[in-house]
Amino acid sequence: MNKKHNYTVNSRLFDDYLERMNFLNEISIIYPNAISFGSGRPDQDFFHVKDVLSHFHSYLELSKPANMELDAFYDYIGQYNKTKGIINEAIAKLIANDENIIADPEDIMMTDGAQEGMAIVINSLFESPDDVLLVSDPSYIGFVGYAKICGITMCAINRDEDSINFDHLEATIERLKKEGKTPKVLYEVPDFHNPSTAYMPLEKRKKLIELAEKHNFYIVEDNPYGYFVYETEKIPTLKALDRYRRVIYLGSFSKTIFPSIRLGYLVVDQVVDHKGKEIRLIEEFKKTKSFITVNTSTLLQAMAAGLIHQEGYSLYKSCNERVGAYKKKRDAMIEALERHFPASESWTKGISWKKPLGGFFLVIDIPFQMTDKLLGECVKEYNVIFCPMSYFCLNEEVGARQIRLAFSNLSPKTIDEGISRLASFIKKCVIASC
Q: Is 195 in contact with 362 (CB distance < 8 Å)?
């Protein structure tokens, strides 16, 4: 018999919102035979794990100090190492070539995936209950969920079709200031926003940076999908446009290499006046990281740097095949939706979608409210998984009549079968709601 202890844990962990991350990560494991549009996993056919592993050796041979034997350098790589990372120069070259972001290697920090980068930002910048994190509604669950665990005060900003709503952003900032609160950070994914799929236009990117300067807040730009542009011109990142140093840039290799490499990076070039003392923000982030992971695995860094060097400090060429494959998957989903949700049938009235210009997701508008109960019925009775948009919203009513579908990890044939099942389920729901 298990003894129960009279003990308390962080009560914020019982927020229903936090269960949604587990859903995204584990629903496919719980229902292994279901077709899952739930999680935007990259296609493992493009991982090339053996090749990436081999780059560990090439990096060491390339980077070995002249005064050190190769065997000794191998041992050195196995030791605790620099908190900010050992491949910062390679990252600086990469983002200069691929994103036109000019950064001093000393202003770059390697992280254990983008998720650790988010944790470092939140733990470093927020101090008072009056410090407010601004997030669009909907927004990426990983960032918002961690902020909830930390007890950060958050304020939801409405979204337009292709961006956050700037009028609502400014009105919210003015209201917060009148209440004696400080809008500290805005979190945003301008390139194929997860979950809305929006691609923020150039002029709105420039406007957002101007607003950050006007109202004295930082923007955390998360860019996991920037390489995956399908049929439009590449728009510069916020960081590439950042003439005021208002943008903290968060990069990741989970989509361009593979998720288990667990590597991300922060670009933090801000200098701040903290209570009359000038400090480099990256050095404060360094303190935070030293108490979270001490340093990011040098073995994994070496693998990534070897690959980046081989590719000439640009990942666009190595991602070309992936981009082409993901575009075909997206097109297969669009074709399947058109076939299984025919506009000629009355039950499809009020059901619509837009073709995403990049990224891993597509959003469908539906004419009824999606609930956990309905989702459960779909999984059990139709063997297909999707993600209600409300799972990404602080105000669940915002996404109550939308669902997000991921196409990145499925074959065109499987996508068609999954959409066929989804159409049967939605048709049943529409008829039942009439």
A: no
